[in-house]
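Re: that chain you flagged

S.,

Sorry for the slow reply, it's been a week of failed gels. I finally had a moment to sit down with the sequence you sent. For the record, here it is as I used it:
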Amino acid sequence: MIPVLTRTAEAVPLYAAACAELAARGFEGDVSLAPADRTVFATDNSIYQVQPGAVAFPKSRDDLVRIARLLEDPRFREIVLRPRGGATGTNGQSLGDGLVVDTSRHMNRIVEIDVAHRVVRVEPGVVKDQLNRELAKHGLFFAPELSTSNRATIGGMISTDACGQGSCLYGKTRDHVLALTCVLTDGTVWTAEPLDAEGLAAAKAQPGRIGEIHRAVDAAVSENAALIESRFPKLNRCLTGYDLAHVRDGEGRFDLKSLICGAEGTLALIAEAQLSVLPIPKASALVALSYVDFDAALRDAQTLMPFGAASVETIDSTVLGLARQDPIWAEVRAFFPDDPAGRTVEGINLVEFVGDEAGAVEAALCRLTDKLDAERESHGKRVGYTIARGGAIERLWTMRKKAVGLLGAAKGDARPIPFVEDTAVPPEVLADYIAEFRALLDGKGLRYGMFGHVDAGVLHVRPAIDLKDEAQAPLIREVTEGVVALTKRYGGLLWGEHGKGFRSEFVPETFGPLVPVLETVKRAFDPGDRMNPGKIASAAGRPLTRIDGVPRRGEADRTIPAPVRAEFDAALHCNGNGACFSFDADEAMCPSWKATRERRHSPKGRASLMREWLRLAAAAGADPTAALKAERPNGLTDLLRSLRPAGKNQDFSHAVKEAMDGCLACKSCTGSCPIKVDVPSFRAKFLALYHQRYPRPLKDHLIAALEPLLPLAARWPRLGNAAMANPLSRAVLARLGLVAIPALSTFDLAGALAGLGVATATPEALRALSGEDRGKSVVVVQDAFTTHFEAELVADLCALLVALGFRPWLAPYRPNGKPLHVHGFLARFGRVAADGAAALRALAAEGVPLVGIDPSMTLTYRAEYAAALPAGAAPQVQMVQEWLSARLDAVAPRSPGGHFRLLPHCTERTNAPGAVKDWQAVFRHLGLRLDVPAAGCCGMAGTYGHEARHRATSETIYRQSWAQRVHDSAGDLLADGYSCRSQVKLVDGIRLRHPVSALLDHVRTSVVKAAQVAA
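Prediction finished late last night. Pasting the structure tokens below so you have them in one place:
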């Protein structure tokens, strides 16, 4: 049993007092001192981990003013601020002790879209893709492209002066910032925008902080013009933040935005941004080139760039190999065909042309392809090229965007990590520079992956280092110092794209005699060093943060014993990339995050809490792995414990439990996270351990008993339904925590199956089949929910199979165990899985395939069963469409019919995307069209939506995506998840059909028509 776990680093009294003072001053947002939130906010997308004192979530500019004025109070002179956006920074830009100021929760409004002038005003917490979704309605877009665009905030983009693909055409974030409304550390609200000579004179004449800033910066630029000219690099990715070289814009105006963009929150809080936006290009085409080695791809870029492409991006063999193992490869593999000569592709370049005139785009494309064709024989290192248009272009860029995550998913303890991943050099020397970079890494025996913006001279290089191994920790400094020297020799920069953050120690080496000038700028804006201190410059001339002077996540993970890390690796390998923070409600990834906007209710948040819990357990001498192995199923004892009230204490386990309870166990993270962080897996283990000490609620035991008891209740379904409809019964269940209980099916399944000639599958019966009958036979594996709540669907499936010429058999009903796993009854689940697997393997051993109806229940056999049972013991059960799509050659096509739309179960959509395509193949073969619109989670997720404490959140999730799809339907909408159909019926009173039922209706109709024609 795990002991009570307490943390030594509890709330700091200074920050507790500060939060209380904010509330007293009318702060309208939220503040948190909770251990869970402080743990989650201790990390970003970097290798570092620093716990803040508190977290503030302002609602408005006035709240930012309240925070800033707190700094003027002598009682809080030790308080520092850590502004935070989407937490996608790779160098700890937003990390540190202090008060985190997170604008993403509340300050995420698009204030104005001025279509005529192509200008927008936004709050800093707006996500880039969120903005572009709204702008697309007007044919516009915000140009700087990022791989993290579905969670990166505008405030964060401004603070790092972000850019990515297409920067040679579109520039960086600052090139699109027209004005910034900022809050200074004394609470002054000030708008940074270009000033002519008269405006500058007026600004310098102002009293207070605004006047001081303009006087100090003007003097610094004027007095150091020659030094600034000589020290600032002339690169596409020129220096970000404190950019004195661009204080005067192209029209000679004085523009302090050049200092704030890229300043990483060290100068001011951003309250609002005015941005310029551009028309969406009307035409585009992309050339995907393959090479025999990565060096050839880099060197060929110089040949490709003069053709006027919007972007030229490159990917090495490491990233390419990982992409081939990801679901995205199915979407793009056609663009990288095998070489007829048998050469292996070790590098690719993606070259995109865009424009408003299709003819101009085609002309540029043809100029390039003509050259490629002319050099087909002479250029020995190009394997070939393909051309992508339309939606295929977006799919290729999606693969490229996933490169960071794909590297993180590499196997082993040493995984590619960011710390020298954004160097920039002149593009013409990039290939030679990378050759030396690779030699540096090869010399230290490191694996690595490379990808990036070859046209801008920026490659993202991530060496694989295991920071849990103390012996490998010095490699961070060794490699960084080697790369700093290398970039200097090639006329480049260590920080070409992702900011300085905790790498600020190298600022003096880059700026030399300009460091005092940077400190003057910092002092003018932030005289007390209160804004993100230790980064870029110090008002007091203090040393800046050193890369090995900050705690790293690996150091904390190192304290967890290796066997425990192996048991919980689904949490330990989260690298903080933040893909789970996607704003898009029409994306399945993490519905609990989208509904709550609480970062602890996300895969990254839950993984962070799990790691901290394991660290605390190790410090207390506990062994979670041993405790799991020692667990034995004892339902009666557990039930009796549930009758006793649980005591309250300060156990950190309660904070972890609260976050785990909010998880829907939909497994979208398992499929969508590039690292494959599997929250349901480690959540189940945590719940098993938690409930060794603390009793379960009674409703957990009811859920655990559901699968075994349903066959008994189904004997008298009308009686059971009458009892459940009784107000007293509903009140009792609600008191226990269960609501919205569905009615048992009254359909005569046995009679329907008898009429179809469907028999019960036994090994003996299957063994007696002739070879011909065995070839046509298939065993339908029942699940508790379909059989007992939608029995007619089982009959529909069998009828469809008969109509298509197959012979269905029905496996005897057995509990699947999914509800047990979800609620952490792991010992009982293991027993159920072993028994069920043995029975199904006995059927499969007779050479007849097994198929399941419900995606979530069926996928349990290939995931949870595989993890719980010895290797090879899990039964091979396919979803019906997977099995059927492989046998379409034996199915006669049907006459053309209607058009349907399918909302797949989110577990299926994210963990078995090929199965969704299988539905489309089956429908197409039978004369029907099936579209699969983008959609998130329905919010039901098995038993989640039936729990009283989750019901409101469940409906919030439903309204975010599914509700609109349902309301837009005209009888053509299908859903293959039982819980999904149940949710739609419960909320909107609409009965969605399963794809099987739609197919059956069509097959029956088309067969009748064919008979009529024959007559």
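What I noticed first: The radius of gyration is 30 Å.

Talk soon,
D.
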